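Hi P.,

Sorry for the delay on this. The queue was packed all week, but I finally got your sequence through. Input first:
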Amino acid sequence: MDTNTIAQEFKRGLEAEVAASRKCLERMQESLFDYKPHEKSMPMGYLSVLVAEIPKWITITIEEGEIDFATWERYKITTVADMLAYFDKNVESAKAALEKTTDKELEEMFYLKTGGKELMKDTKKNSISSSLRHWVHHRGQLTVYMRLNNIPVPSIYGPSADDKSF
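Then the structure:
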């Protein structure tokens, strides 16, 4: 019998990060979507979309085994409310995909491509682990943008200067 022990650990890891990620996205301001702290930085709206979208990467990794940047449909940011709905949909989809997969399936290969050209390949397991870390990294970047714009930073792993609740 195939187990899904690893997938369940990933699901717990995903669920542990959802509330903090959603709190950050809820505090976004549409007037700041184009804000960049430096000319080489990505715009705040784009960064917010990454935080909302990365759970979708988990679903695609499991169900399709490939992401091709040439055909990837980037979410078009419009409002914070729409982005939150997109985030919630992506989280639920990732949880459902993790529920259905097995440890054996997670050993299958995942491919990251652009225009059909392979950029990277690794097991689905390693790709999901990397996606979760990538998600936390971009959320951390987002909190810096928030601080620079006087948007209260929520507590994430403990109290923040703006949110003492924990």
